[in-house]
Design a protein that fits this description.
The complex is a heterodimer. Chain A is α+β, with helices and mostly antiparallel strands. Chain A has helices at 3-16, 18-55, 85-94, 130-134, 147-152, 161-168, 171-174, 204-215, 236-242, 249-256, 283-297, 309-352, 354-362, 367-403, 414-441, 444-449, and strands spanning 61-66, 98-106, 112-114, 117-119, 123-127, 139-142, 156-159, 184-187, 190-198, 244-248, 261-262, 265-266, 272-277, 304-308. In chain A, strands 1, 2, 3, 4, 5, 6, 7, 8, 9, 10, 13 and 14 form a twelve-stranded mixed β-sheet that branches. The longest helix of chain A is centred in the last third of the chain and has 44 residues, at 309-352. Chain A is elongated and about 105 Å long. In chain B, the strands form two sheets. Chain B has a six-stranded mixed β-sheet with strand order 6-7-8-3-9-10, with helices on both faces. Chain B has a four-stranded antiparallel β-sheet with strand order 2-1-4-5, covered by helices on one side. Chain B is of the alpha/beta class. Chain B contains eight helices and ten strands. In chain B, a hairpin with a 2-residue loop joins strand 4 and strand 5. In chain B, 34% of the residues lie in helices and 24% in strands. The longest helix of chain B is centred in the last third of the chain and has 16 residues, at 176-191. Chain B has helices at 46-53, 76-86, 102-112, 117-130, 146-158, 176-191, 203-206, 225-232, and strands spanning 4-15, 18-30, 35-39, 61-66, 69-70, 87-90, 164-168, 196-200, 211-216, 219-220. In chain B, helix 3 runs parallel beside helix 5, helix 4 (117-130) packs across helix 5 (146-158) and helix 5 (146-158) packs parallel to helix 6. The chains are: A alpha+beta, B alpha/beta. At the A-B interface, helix 1, helix 13, helix 14 and helix 16 of A face helix 2 and helix 3 of B. The structure holds adenosine-5'-diphosphate and magnesium ion. Adenosine-5'-diphosphate binds next to strand 1, strand 2 and helix 1 of chain B.
């Protein structure tokens, strides 16, 4: 029996029981929609996380972290020196495999004020100019700190665009871009001069949306303006980066005693030391070199560790794998339920058609022909369900786009679509096997006699 | 060699430990071109015999040769092929597929013999022409009268040009006038050289066939003269119009 004909007959059979067939397909529809939807969410998450990683300094950034001393050094814990400028100088001099060493001294609980406007920065840090390369900053306006600024602990700062937006007004509000170089703002009541401003950091998607909004005339919004959905503010990592304010390291130390003090004695500990190695393929030996240097400056007390972005990547991948797994399980359960539904309906359907099957057999249908006919019908149901599921998943993803943060906007992947459709067809085949076998085995006489 | 050779065929059903001999040691020859009726009261085993002759069922004992092929041990697949190529069936309840139209119903056997669509359409139309139903080609079975449905069934039986046609009580569900029309259609087909086996419980219907075989309790009855005469040889056309004594 020609395949095309069989498929047509299968479609016809489904068409005669439209309502019943759609109900049957529901499991498959939900299964496909949830599989594709989940995959899209996860893909969105992945994109967001990767963007965030770049925003935070890229894959070659290594954090020198403070750690608990190992068990066998517990008695020395009191003498652990922590991360100080001594380490930074030593690394710069004695660890040539490191390309960039960037010390940071954070100033905590900072409030920025200018006239009646205030702003809480995501971080207010004393830095060297190495930080620009370390955190992949782009200085768009003004200058960065000079050695003189550092030397004199000058009250100067470089800000991200979000701080400008808060204190001077954003281009969207004001209608023009304000470059506040030379303006004075208060950092915890100390006057600082803005000497530079970074570029605006944003994800691909936000950028596109912003450009689009620029070309379109602003719509009149009725009522109080309000953000659509929650968390619709783009990637938090970019958001954070735009809210950064830097000052010279020495300024932080001299004017804020940034790292606090210990029993009244100023504590010169740094809040962070970040490293970049010259050659990523030499990461291990470079870190070993750094470790050797630090073991000297720390008098053998191992109160530090390295955190590479590889660890970060790994944890991102683990998260994604877990999300995939749970999404897959949900989709698999839906598809299983869909398969059971199809099997159920196929059994009912052949039961209704026992006489018809008898007639076909009387005019020469072989068991195989009947088997294939029923199987194809089952696959047709599954495929129609998959097609509807794909459509449903597009709708589903549209809805998700409206409620999820822009940076993590779900992205439908071809791979997920193919897998979902392939699985549905597989489910159709498996669900059809038993009913098809039952139909094929019917004895012609008994089938003809069946009332 | 006869077209059909049945030798010592029995069909035994086991019903709750009881043995029912639906057919009991039946031997029978049917020649090519014969028009033959199988007659007997209800439950005598006529349908069982027809099913075995028509490769719808296998005998419990005995041998059957159909068109030179031994089929008592044939597989389901081989039996399906025999039904498809060499046998046409006409049933009491028409047995048309309700979801297909007339042409599609007639095409059905050809679908299983893998004939392409164009050829199928051509032959289906020819078969419908033979039963004078071309004008109903696109109708559904439910839109036709009983007699018309039975003619569609006959067209379907003819369409693969079978060696033999079996009709099980083909007029059983029709009024006498329509039934007569169906019978004369069979007579015409017989005159065109087709081999036809007509199964009926009605002696008046059996009277139209030159040869009659009577079945009682699963055995071929030997008492009836006419049947014996039938076994002895083919009857002349003159007998066709004579009313036959009831069995
Ligand atoms: N599947 C079956 N199981 C048991 N007995 C059967 C079966 N089919 C037919 N019979 C019995 O075989 C006998 C002959 O049946 P059948 O050939 O249908 O008679 P007819 O067609 O002459 O009316 C009946 O007694 C019937 O009960
Ligand atoms: Mg019967």
């Amino acid at each position: 029996m020609p395949l095309l004909n069989t498929i047509l007959v299968g479609f016809k059979e489904v068409w005669t029981h439209k309502f019943r067939s759609v109900l049957t397909m529901l499991g498959i529809i939900l299964g496909v929609a949830s599989l594709v939807g989940m995959a899209a969410i996860i893909k969105g998450m992945e994109n967001g996380m990767k963007e965030a990683m770049i925003a935070m300094g890229g894959a070659d950034k290594v954090l020198l972290e403070q750690q608990e001393v190992p068990v066998d050094q517990e008695h020395l814990a009191d003498q652990a020196p922590g991360r100080t400028m001594l380490d930074v100088q030593a690394l710069k001099q004695a660890a040539p495999m490191l390309r960039v060493v960037s010390p940071e001294m954070a100033v905590n609980n900072v409030l920025l004020t200018r006239a009646d406007k205030t702003c809480m920065p995501s971080e207010c840090v004393g830095v060297w100019s190495a930080v620009v390369e370390m955190n992949l900053h782009t200085l768009e306006h003004g200058r960065f700190f000079t050695e003189l600024d550092e030397e004199h602990a000058n009250p100067v700062c470089v800000i991200g665009t979000a701080i400008r937006d808060e204190l001077f007004g954003s281009p969207e509000q004001v209608g023009q871009e304000i470059v506040p170089i030379g303006e004075v703002i208060q950092i915890n009541s100390q006057p600082f001069t803005i000497v530079g401003m970074f570029a605006r950091y944003e994800g691909e998607r936000e950028k596109k949306e912003r450009e689009l909004a620029k070309t379109k005339p602003a719509e009149e919004v009725a009522g109080p303006s309000r953000q659509r959905g929650w968390g619709r503010r783009g990637n938090w990592a970019f958001q954070r980066k735009n809210l950064t304010i830097y000052m010279p390291l020495n300024t932080a130390w001299v004017r804020f005693r940034a790292a606090g003090d210990k029993d009244g004695i100023p504590d010169p500990r740094l809040s962070d030391i970040d490293l970049k190695v010259g050659d990523m393929s030499e990461l291990e030996p470079a870190l070993q070199q750094a470790r050797n240097v630090l073991m000297l400056t720390h008098r053998g007390i191992e109160d530090f560790g390295f955190r590479t972005q590889e660890n970060q990547l790994e944890s991102i991948n683990t998260q994604i794998r877990n999300a995939r797994m749970s999404g897959g399980v949900i989709a698999a359960i839906s598809l299983l339920v869909g398969g059971i539904g199809i099997m159920n309906i196929m059994l009912a359907s052949i039961n209704e058609r026992i006489r018809e099957i008898g007639i076909c057999k009387a005019v020469g249908a072989t068991g195989l022909a009947v088997f294939i006919q029923v199987l194809i019908e089952s696959v047709v149901i599954a495929m129609l369900g998959a097609a509807m599921g794909v459509m449903a998943s597009y709708g589903f993803v549209r809805v998700l786009e409206l409620v999820s943060p822009t940076a993590n906007a779900p992205v439908i992947t071809t791979g997920a679509l193919l897998i979902a459709v392939a699985f549905s067809i597989g489910v159709g085949v498996v669900a059809g096997l038993f009913p098809a076998f039952k139909a094929a085995r019917l004895h012609p006489i008994q089938a003809l006699r069946y009332e | 060699m006869a077209l059909v050779e049945l030798r010592n065929v029995s069909k035994i059903y086991q019903l709750g430990g009881e043995e029912i001999r639906a057919l009991d040691d039946v031997s029978l020859d049917i020649d090519s071109g014969e028009f033959i009726s199988i007659i007997g009261p209800s439950g005598s085993g006529k349908s069982t015999l027809m099913h075995i002759l028509g490769c719808l069922d296998s005998p419990s004992k005995g041998t059957i040769q159909l068109d030179g092929v031994m089929i008592q041990n044939a597989s389901a697949r081989e039996l399906a092929a025999m039904r498809n190529r060499k046998i046409g069936f006409v049933f009491q309840f028409f047995n048309l597929l309700p979801k297909l139209n007339v042409t599609q119903n007639v095409e059905l056997p050809m679908i299983y013999s893998g004939i392409n669509g164009k050829e199928r359409r051509k032959r289906a139309l020819a078969a419908l022409e033979a039963v004078d139903l071309v004008n109903r080609a696109k109708h559904r079975p439910s839109q036709l009268s009983g007699g018309q449905q039975q003619r569609v069934a006959i067209a379907r039986a003819l369409v693969n040009d079978p060696r033999i046609i079996f009709a099980d009580e083909p007029t059983g569900n029709l009024d006498s006038h329509t039934g007569d029309a169906i019978l004369s259609l069979f007579r015409r087909l017989s005159q065109e050289g087709r081999t036809i086996v007509l199964v009926t419980h009605d002696p008046e219907i059996a009277a139209v066939t030159p040869r009659r075989i009577e079945i009682r309790d699963g055995k071929i009855a030997t008492k009836v003269d006419l049947t014996l005469a039938g076994l002895a040889g083919r009857q002349t056309a003159a007998n066709l119009s004579q009313p036959s004594p009831s069995a």
